[in-house]
């Protein structure tokens, strides 16, 4: 006589159910916490004041198109400047890349980008134009300037209060700051942002947008 088989349906234990729910909830709670922290960071950046660090002295150099360019062309504009050179073996590619990142979020504004060459003898307008093309710099929005070395170095050191050296006492290569500088419509320096820091662009954009609201066109 065959004994009928009996199928036993096991009911999941309570600890097992709790463990599965925990595995599902942990990522959701973590995501929610990260979003909340991000909101707090954005709110804090919006509320912080944008300081002033003096006024940029008047200057005039030559841009990548061989045209005179300087304070007169930037009058009444918010602009962001940096100091780089095209053959830089160090941080310049990163600085220029970070500057390039600013183009898209600022495309509907009148904010201008300026890159001063600290090796102007090699960085002729033709060289700077090729460099600008590699970076896909928007014409009329991002200018690359060259000119007398003494004037550029004086502007960096005395005007922007940034360290700079022509490298004559080291390995023969220029040494310059990795900071980007935010300037308002009145020519006042409103912020310094180290391009090597991961949150530099976030802070710079937050302060730039603050200035755009503070100083509308």
What is the compact description of this entry?
With 217 residues, the chain is α/β, with parallel strands linked by helices. Helices cover 39% and strands 17% of the residues.
Description:
The protein is of the alpha/beta class. The chain has 2 domains: 14-47; 60-214, 3-Layer(aba) Sandwich (Glutaredoxin), CATH 3.40.30.10. It contains 6 helices and 9 strands, in the order αββαβαβαβαββββα. It has helices at residues 14-47, 71-74, 92-101, 125-134, 149-159, 200-214, and strands spanning 60-62, 68-70, 79-84, 112-117, 142-145, 164-165, 175-176, 179-183, 189-194. The strands form 3 sheets. The chain has a 5-stranded mixed sheet with strand order 5-4-3-8-9. A two-stranded antiparallel ribbon has the order 1-2. Helix 3 links the parallel strand 3 and strand 4. The relative contact order is 0.17. The mean pLDDT is 87.
End-to-end separation? 97 Å
Classify the secondary structure makeup into a structural class: alpha/beta
- CATH structural architecture of the largest domain: 3-Layer(aba) Sandwich
| Succession of helices and strands | HEEHEHEHEHEEEEH
CATH superfamily of the largest domain: Glutaredoxin
What composes the largest sheet?
5 strands, mixed
Q: How would you state the average pLDDT, rounded? A: 87
CATH topology annotation of the largest domain? Glutaredoxin
Low-confidence stretches: none
Number of strands: 9
> What is the domain total for the residues?
2
How many individual helices? 6
What is the highest CATH level, the class of the largest domain?
Answer: Alpha Beta
Oligomer: single chain
The percentage of residues in β strands lies in: 15-25%
Write down the overall geometry.
elongated
Report the radius of gyration as a whole number of Å: 27 Å
Fraction of residues in H or I helices: 25-40%
The order of strands across the largest sheet is 5-4-3-8-9
């Amino acid at each position: 006589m065959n004994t009928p088989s009996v199928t036993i349906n096991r009911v999941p234990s309570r600890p097992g159910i709790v463990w599965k729910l925990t595995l599902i909830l942990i990522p959701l709670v973590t995501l929610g916490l990260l979003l909340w922290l991000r909101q707090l960071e954005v709110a804090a950046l919006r509320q912080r004041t944008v300081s002033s660090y003096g006024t940029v002295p008047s200057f005039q150099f030559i841009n990548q198109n061989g045209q005179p360019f300087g304070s007169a062309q930037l009058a009444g504009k918010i602009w962001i400047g940096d100091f780089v050179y095209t053959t830089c073996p160090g941080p310049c590619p990163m600085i220029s890349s970070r500057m390039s990142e600013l183009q898209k979020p600022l495309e509907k504004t009148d904010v201008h980008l300026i890159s001063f060459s600290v090796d102007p003898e090699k960085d002729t307008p033709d060289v700077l134009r090729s460099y600008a093309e590699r970076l896909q710099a928007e014409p009329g929005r991002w200018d690359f300037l060259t000119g007398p070395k003494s004037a550029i170095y004086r502007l960096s050191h005395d005007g922007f209060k940034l360290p700079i050296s022509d490298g004559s006492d080291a390995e023969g290569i220029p040494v310059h700051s990795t900071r980007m500088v935010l300037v308002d419509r009145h020519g006042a320096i409103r912020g310094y942002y180290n391009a090597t820091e991961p949150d530099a662009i976030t802070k710079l954009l937050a302060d730039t947008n603050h200035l755009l609201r503070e100083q509308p066109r």
